[in-house]
From TrEMBL:
InterPro entries according to UniProt: P-loop_NTPase, TOPRIM_DnaG/twinkle
Name under which the protein is recorded: DUF927 domain-containing protein
Top-level taxonomy: Bacteria, Pseudomonadati, Pseudomonadota, Gammaproteobacteria, Moraxellales
Top-level taxonomic group: Bacteria
Any Pfam family hit: Toprim_2
Length: 903
């Protein structure tokens, strides 16, 4: 059954996204989510599963819950109770969330409401009464919409849940031959609906042995002279479930019960009994299989487990694990035959009944198996292949293993390449490297058999080599959290993200982001401190970080994202500001990278580390640092529109290269202004910090910013990603408005690139204020005014020389006018004989300046600036010419004179 509200949404999405068409009571001719062929079909009335009929090529079944998980949440919002159906919310959860028939469950549950008064967040709950002890009744409830804040489940406050059990209705436990005991109530309901006698002990945790009800069973069986039922401990197939089974069996045996275990299958996605019920996998034959899995778990010795496997599979050689170690089983046929050849029950025991003969033969076969079973340990750990991780971009792949150790040592996880798994010697080396104290003593044949078990139908996980946004999958991967279409996902126990549409994604993160997902710990007072400490300039820097989260989406629509330069003399608080802004993203004690002190390879790797996150370059032009080469900003201009960072070879023996685009944003923090070509300068939005802007109150505010811990402010990035769709919609609407605003003639901004850059920041600032943080209206107005002034100043800079260049030429012109010229010479420092050129030999220039006490900038600094000289247009550096002053060959920098200076 599927509720009408959900059915309409599912059908609409399948038609739009996969092009399904209604044909009678079916949806047909849709694209298969796995192979994309237009042959898939599903039910129109209850489209729970999409089937692909291409058995030989695909044949996949896709569950709607996996495809559209967002349609199976927010129960309270989607299913509002009515007077006719006051339990509609929990009914929908039971049917659509748990796959249970509510007509058989009526009266077992109620719809309640829980509110946390600290956070003022509440939710509808599904409550089950627990009445196994007279006079001490409690309840357990499942909170349907916990919103990442409320606990998923809870017991009645003040009621001790240990020892209690939830019992299924109309069940004769006393006369039952066996009783299955589960962790959860939903699991017990699933077994009960499958005609299995069961009850829930409420948890697999220590102290939840259900002594209250088991003591009741013992008393009633004693009163009626009945044998005790066998207990089948059927917990989840995970470590907590296994530990619970062992502890409870030990206690139950002490109490006189015969015990077995049952486990859900461990292959593929983790499943509990409720999941198996939804898949119709709780038939009698299935239950026997699950008891077999349980028997393997509780086998006392390696040989016992091996014989169980042999009896079921019939294979005479195979690997198996026991107590987190791997063994090899081999049946010695000669020993077995020798042990069995003397059986002659018919001749010696003519009076035996047939049943007695069969029992004797079975006992003899069991002893023969024990004698012939040869079990050898081949590795003193338990490797488990979790998945195959691959990178499409670099054509690399690894198998990701979990390695468990005996004696409860901490597990380790690491990768193995194909070559390291292909040969026993290489596997042994790699295992020694990643697992302390572990030795593989098996041979190649045994390793091949292990590989068959490890990697058959292994899960595939896509690997990315950066932190941030995956453009094709529309997903942010940030440390242990991921965001897909505004929904948060947490990393699973196997270190990857399970996303909708069967997408498995993992980041081989070059650095970590420590983001606190608990919104109740968020301290948003930092916005006030930021404004008080840095004013509008701090908000502009914040906008730059904020905008970086949407860089690829913005570049896709508007082709570019501006470079941002934060410039100011030392002591103006740039470092404090940047470190705090990184805290908002969960990156601790980090400011940026000095490009002038990094190798080219190191710098390229840094630029490839992020997507939709900023790259901050700091202090690349320090004055007087002779050991540091000036950084060439012109090399980065292609990053403006997400251009290539340069190619690297792919290690596959061919000529293929990997040439990734720049996926982040660029922020430069400088003490001195960047001087580069017009192409680079036009890409930069510059905000300047001055010491005269500092006050006592701003100093105290900046100190308060330093004291914020990452766990109290890193929720900012999550709020931004949660509002991704709304932010981008607001940005796109505002950009058109501000682009038209800055293009007005009264502002005299001629560069369209300058207009576009500053309009982008204006639009991003508005979107941030509208959806993420609160900024007073008058401060917002000041930010807009500041961005307008920045745009006008940047446009003027593009039309004229920088201050350092202007001052240099002023000094040179003054020297030409004031210093007496040598006889027969027309110039003091211009070595060119051509009337329209000005040639400078810097050694000669600085000697003359020193002789006549003229102050000039440091040579390396001014030479870099003069390469972008406009008034005296730069032509060439270090050209050998015949000097008009010395009549000898001099190496000079050549400039074209302005018209006013020509003879």
């Amino acid at each position: 059954m599927m509720f009408l509200e959900t059915q309409i949404l599912v059908v609409d999405r399948l038609k739009q996204e996969f092009e399904f068409k209604e044909r009678g009571d079916k949806l047909r001719l849709g694209k298969c989510p796995s192979c994309s062929k237009k042959e898939a079909w599903t039910s129109l009335e209850s489209p729970w599963v999409i089937h692909c009929p291409r058995k030989n090529h695909c044949g996949e079944t896709t569950y709607i819950r996996d495809l559209y998980p967002d349609l199976f949440e927010k129960w309270e919002k989607r299913f509002t109770p009515t007077a006719e159906n006051p339990t509609k919310t929990v009914d929908a959860y039971l049917v659509e969330g748990r796959g249970l028939p509510i007509d058989q469950l009526k009266g077992l549950y109620s719809q309640e409401y829980h509110k946390d008064y600290d956070t003022q967040i509440g939710s509808v709950t599904l409550r089950f009464a627990i009445t196994d002890e007279d006079g001490n009744h409690g309840w357990w409830q499942r909170i349907l919409d916990e919103q990442g804040v409320l606990p998923k489940t809870m017991f009645k406050k003040g009621w001790k849940s240990q020892g209690h059990a939830w019992l299924s209705p109309n069940t004769n436990y006393i006369e039952s031959k066996e009783i299955w005991i589960t962790e959860g109530i939903f699991d017990t309901i699933a077994l009960w609906l499958s005609n299995v006698t069961s009850f829930s002990c409420l948890s697999a945790g220590f102290g939840y042995y259900p002594f209250i009800f088991l003591n009741h069973i013992k008393e009633k069986c004693a009163e009626r002279n009945l044998p005790l039922p066998k207990l089948v401990w059927a917990f989840d197939n995970d470590k907590a479930g296994h530990d619970g089974i062992f502890k409870n069996i030990e206690k139950a045996i002490e109490d006189g019960f015969e015990c077995e275990a049952a486990l859900p299958p461990s292959t593929g996605r983790k499943a509990d009994w409720n999941d198996l019920y939804k898949q119709d996998r709780l038939k009698l034959s299935d239950l026997e299989t699950y008891k077999y899995y349980g028997s393997l778990l509780i086998a006392e010795k390696p040989v016992d487990k091996a014989i169980l496997i042999y009896k079921r599979s019939g294979s005479k050689t195979f690997p198996f694990d026991f107590n987190n170690q791997v063994y090899w089983f081999k049946l010695d046929n000669d020993k077995y035959d020798e042990y069995m050849k003397d059986i002659d029950f018919e001749d010696d025991n003519e009076d035996w009944l047939e049943e007695e003969k069969e029992k004797a033969q079975a006992d003899r076969r069991e002893k023969a198996l024990q004698a012939a079973a040869n079990v050898t340990k081949i590795v003193n750990c338990k490797p488990t292949a979790l998945y195959y991780q691959y990178s499409d971009e670099t054509d690399e792949a690894w198998y990701y293993f979990n390695i468990d150790f005996p004696r409860n040592q901490q597990s380790v996880k690491n990768t193995f390449t194909g070559s390291q798994l292909a040969a026993a010697s290489e596997f042994k080396k790699r295992l020694l490297a990643v697992a302390p104290g572990v030795v593989y003593t098996g041979n190649g044949t045994q390793l091949d058999r292990l590989l068959e078990r490890w990697i058959e139908d292994i899960k595939r996980v896509q690997l990315i080599n950066y932190v941030g946004y995956h453009n094709e999958l529309k997903t942010y991967v940030l440390g242990e959290l991921a965001y897909h279409n505004g929904k948060q996902f947490k990393i699973n126990n196997e270190d990857y993200f399970e996303l909708p549409k069967n997408i498995n994604l993992k980041s081989r993160a070059p650095f970590t982001l420590d983001i606190n997902a608990n919104q109740t710990e968020y301290q948003n007072a930092w916005t006030t401190d930021l404004i008080e400490a840095y004013g509008v300039k701090g908000l502009i820097a914040l906008t730059t970080f904020f905008g970086s989260l949407y860089a690829q989406q913005i570049r896709k629509t508007h082709k570019s994202f501006p470079f941002v330069e934060i410039v100011g003399e030392p002591g103006t608080g740039k470092s404090t500001l940047l470190k705090f802004l990184w805290k908002l993203f969960g990156r601790i004690n980090y400011e940026g990278l000095d490009p002038a002190k990094s190798s080219k390879a190191g710098l390229l790797r840094t630029f490839r580390q992020v997507s939709n996150l900023p790259i901050v370059l700091i202090e690349s032009d320090r004055e007087g640092d002779k050991g540091v080469k000036q950084f060439d900003w012109d090399a980065l201009k292609t990053l403006y529109d997400g251009g290539s960072l340069g190619a690297q070879g792919i290690k596959n023996g061919g000529n293929e290269t990997y040439e990734p685009p720049f996926m982040g944003t660029l922020i430069m923090s400088q003490n001195a202004e960047i001087l580069s070509t017009e192409a680079v300068m036009g890409r930069i939005v510059q905000t300047k910090f001055y010491k005269d802007q500092l006050t006592k109150s701003s100093l105290f505010a900046s100190r308060r910013l330093e004291k914020y811990e990452t766990e109290h402010v890193s929720q900012f990035i999550l709020q931004c990603l949660n509002k991704e769709k709304a932010v981008l919609e607001s940005y796109n609407l505002s950009l058109q408005k501000y682009d038209a605003f800055l293009h007005q003639e009264q502002f005299n901004i001629q560069s369209s690139r300058v207009v576009h850059n500053h309009a982008q920041l204006m639009a991003l600032f508005d979107a941030m204020c509208q959806h993420v943080i609160q900024v007073p209206a008058h401060v917002q107005k000041q930010v807009h005014e500041e961005l307008l002034n920045m745009a006008q100043n940047r446009d003027k800079i593009l039309k004229s020389d920088s201050v350092i260049v202007q001052n240099f030429w002023n000094v040179v012109e003054e020297m030409e006018d004031s210093i007496p010229k040598v006889a027969h010479h027309e110039s003091v420092v211009n070595h060119s004989a051509k009337p329209d050129l000005f040639a400078i030999n810097f050694a000669h220039l600085y000697k003359i300046a020193a002789d006549y006490r003229y102050a000039l900038p440091e040579v390396n600094e001014i030479q870099n600036a003069l390469r972008h000289s406009l008034h005296y247009r730069f032509i060439e550096a270090n050209k050998a010419i015949q000097s008009k002053i010395t009549s000898t060959t001099k190496r000079c920098w050549i400039f074209e004179k302005p018209n006013s200076q020509r003879d």
